[in-house]
Amino acid sequence: MKRSTWFILSGLVAALLLAGVVSNFASSHPDGLDSVAREGCTFDADDNITGGTCMAQGEAGNQTEDSPLADYGLRGIGNEFLSTGLSGVIGVVATFAIGGGVFWLLRAGRRDPDRDKQAA
User: Fold this and answer.
1) What is the pTM assigned to this prediction?
2) Which of 2, 10, 11, 117 has its CA 20 to 30 A from that of 95?
3) Kind of pairing, strands 49-52 and 41-43?
């Protein structure tokens, strides 16, 4: 196996493991942007704003909340661990396929006509 193929495959396997398994152990607490947007407001147990003034009051609904991969999970799968892992794997495979396709197209467009004649 060529060295470049080995490198690409090992990177793909590492990304699949990270997305499929390790992503389930990410923090469930708000990230920095969410935390800053909520500063100055008070929230009830259902996470609704009950008072104060903050950026989160102007927040609009998520336009992708009905998509199959919304909220870091796969809709229709009841097991949260499996749902999160599968959505990560789907994301990695889609990204790899799109990136690989773009590189393949770029490489095919730069073929050297003289080299092709010599190979024939």
Assistant:
1) 0.66
2) 2
3) antiparallel
Question: Amino acid identity, residue 105?
Answer: L
Residue position matching structure tokens 């799109």: 98
Contact (CB, 8 A) for 50 and 43:
yes
Question: What is the rounded CA–CA span in Å between residue 44 and residue 57?
Answer: 14
What DSSP line would sit under 50-105, residue for residue?
A: EEE--GGGGPPPPTTTTSTTGGGS-TT---HHHHHHHHHHHHHHHHHHHHHHHHHH
What is the Cα–Cα distance from 26 to 30, expressed in whole angstroms? 11
| Mean pLDDT, contiguous 10-residue spans, the chain (120 residues) | 89 94 79 85 90 88 83 88 93 95 88 60
Residue at token pair 């790899």 = 96
